UniProtKB/TrEMBL annotation:
Transmembrane segments: none annotated. Residues 7-341 form the Uroporphyrinogen decarboxylase (URO-D) domain. Pfam families: URO-D (PF01208). PANTHER family: METHYLCOBAMIDE:COM METHYLTRANSFERASE MTBA (PTHR47099:SF1). It comes from Marinisporobacter balticus. This is Uroporphyrinogen decarboxylase.
């Protein structure tokens, strides 16, 4: 295993100043797979702030990637507003029942308090542990599901999509409650000393049309990003699936970084919006990171770097989405070691040789 010459924090600071670094930033997005490194069950993340933080720390120290984040699943914010969540013993939590089953109950919904409601206080506590332990050596983040996606979980995905056509005003009301919850949680993240990151899977063009995204999702996402920016924090957003038809909308919100799915054309993304936003991505988390060999991972990383290393606002090697829980450790090692082998500045001829090896 190759060794880094800089800590992730040193690397991030140097890149921000335009100074020399040892390699490109890399984040495999291990997600709840950190439980496998730490040696606990995923269900412990639902009851223990220390388990959440310690698992993230263990994984970071095992692989040496460039960012750690407190984020367990998509549903803590909807749960804090009244949704019911199913907690498997050793797998990621899933939505059991939305907060309401009829639009007549929207007025009953109240924005969540991150210090009192659901699992949110535990996540804030986990952030404190994380920051105390590794905050000086690696950038630390608190993940939050964006206001549009969270609104779906308040009434259910199918009902929400029907409301696009039958009752647009109800959609806006749900998004308002969701936005206020997201803002309160983001403020708690910032007050704790971390940086918010946004996950917005329901904004994907694979899920909703660009028209509906612009009508219902974008106004609340933009307000959310503007709030975070007003606190002096840049924000990275991830949207699953196809996003090319809304790239310009995303850039217009003022995000600092945009994480893309592996189904997206990375080079096209760089060429279109890389002059205005940092690009993160996009090694296939399923067929390559989970199902491939270390050699497959090495090739995929090199190909991604070939396409995007020179993105004007910066590039981070990353998986296209969260890694499956059982992703082989050797494949995560391969991603990190390939990044270290490539080094920085990037040598195009060296990349070509690595593909031929």
């Amino acid at each position: 295993m190759l060794k880094d010459k800089m800590t992730p924090m040193e690397r991030a600071i140097a890149l921000g100043k335009g100074e020399k670094v040892d390699r490109l930033p890399c984040n495999p997005n291990v997600a709840n797979g950190v439980a496998r490194i730490y040696g606990c069950k995923i269900s412990e993340f639902n009851t223990s702030a220390k388990a959440i933080a310690n698992a993230q720390i263990a994984s970071y120290r095992r692989f040496g990637y460039d960012g750690v984040r407190i984020f367990t699943d998509l549903f803590p914010w909807a749960e804090a507003i009244g949704a019911k969540v199913n907690f498997p013993e050793d797998n990621t939590a899933d939505l059991q029942r939305p907060a309401i089953d009829d639009i007549s109950k929207i007025s009953q919904l109240q924005p969540a308090d991150p210090y009192k409601d659901g699992r949110l206080p535990m996540h804030i506590e986990a952030m404190k542990y994380l920051l105390d332990e590794v905050g000086n050596e690696v950038p630390c983040a608190g993940g939050v599901v964006g206001p549009f996606t969270n609104a779906f979980f308040l009434i259910g995905i199918e009902r929400m999509i029907k409301l696009f056509f039958k009752n647009p005003q109800a959609v806006h009301k749900l998004c308002e409650v969701s936005l206020e919850t997201c803002i309160r949680y983001a403020q708690a993240i910032i007050d704790t000393g971390l940086t918010p990151t946004i996950s917005e899977p329901m904004s994907s063009c694979t899920v909703v049309s660009p028209k509906h995204f612009r009508e219902f999702g974008m106004p609340y996402l933009k307000r959310f990003v503007e709030f975070i920016n007003s606190k002096g924090k840049g924000v990275t957003m991830h949207i699953c699936g196809k996003t090319d038809k809304i790239w310009e909308d995303i850039v217009s919100m003022g995000v600092a970084g945009f994480s893309i799915d592996n189904v997206v054309d990375l080079k096209k993304c760089k060429n279109q919006i890389g002059d205005r936003v940092k690009i993160l991505g996009h090694v296939d988390p399923a067929s390559i990171m989970y199902g491939g060999s270390p050699k497959d991972v090495r090739r995929a990383v090199v190909e991604c770097v070939q396409q995007a290393w020179d993105s004007p606002k910066g590039y981070v090697i990353m998986s296209g989405c969260s890694l499956p829980v059982e992703t082989p450790f050797e494949n995560i090692d391969a991603m990190m070691d390939t990044t270290r082998e490539i080094g920085y500045p990037v040598n195009i001829e060296k990349l070509d040789r690595m593909l031929r090896d």
